[in-house]
Each structure stands twice: as C-alpha cells, then as structure tokens.
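Sharing a chain and its predicted structure for anyone who wants a worked example. Both blocks are below, sequence first, tokens second.
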Amino acid sequence: MDDHATTATAAQTLADVEERPTWPAVRRGLLRRCPNCGQGHLFDGYLKVTDTCAACGEVLKHHRADDGPAYLTILIVGHLLAFVMHFVWVNFRPEPLVFATILTVFAVGLSLWLLPRFKGAIVGYQWAHRMHGFDDGR
C-alpha cells in the first residue's frame, strides 16, 4: 500500500510541474538563443554553452548534447552533398579539381553553419523535456 501511495504522490508531483513546450524551445535553440526566454545567447563562443542565461538566469550547464549535433550535421550535409554532386556532374561535367574544390568548400561551410544550430536545438529539446538536470531539482 505504501508503494502505491508513493507512486501516486510522485505522479501528483510530476503533474504539478509546469509543462515546457518542446517546439518553441527547439526553435529558440536553432536560433542559438536561451530555450527558456529566447532573449539571451545560448553560446559563449562557437559551441560552448553558457552556464547561465544572461537575460533570465536559467541554468544551462546541464546539457548533454555529446555527439548528436555532429551526427545530424553529417547526416544532412552528406545527403545534400550527394544530391549536389549528382546534379552538377550530370548537368555540367566540371573539371575534377574544380568540382572537388567547390564541393569541399560547400561541405565545410554548411557543416560550420549547421553544427551550432543543431547543438542549440538539442539543448532546447533537453531543456523542454527536463533531461539531465534541467528538472529544477525535482
């Protein structure tokens, strides 16, 4: 009987926790903004997440993005690169060295642009779902 009461109390406590909407938090992360307020900068530099938001004071150091942003970046850039390679080769037949140079610049540039945005989106998702310490101590 005590286990049931404890489970019911835990469920009640979780129900009392304010729900955080996922998509606004992910969108704010994609924009490299704080997932809570959308005003403060999420990053201190290129990929280092700030410990706390300068605008609202939300603690952001709990994130665990790990290899997720790199995986998503490789997935998207690889698929786009394959399409671009096929399209350009079939329609224009450029010189191989020129072709390789342009594709390399495209891949590196797109990767550098996407990586912080995907990391921000993952941090926003983790914040919205109260993962890894974003649960306010509950």
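Comments welcome. Residues 96-128 form the longest helix (33 residues).
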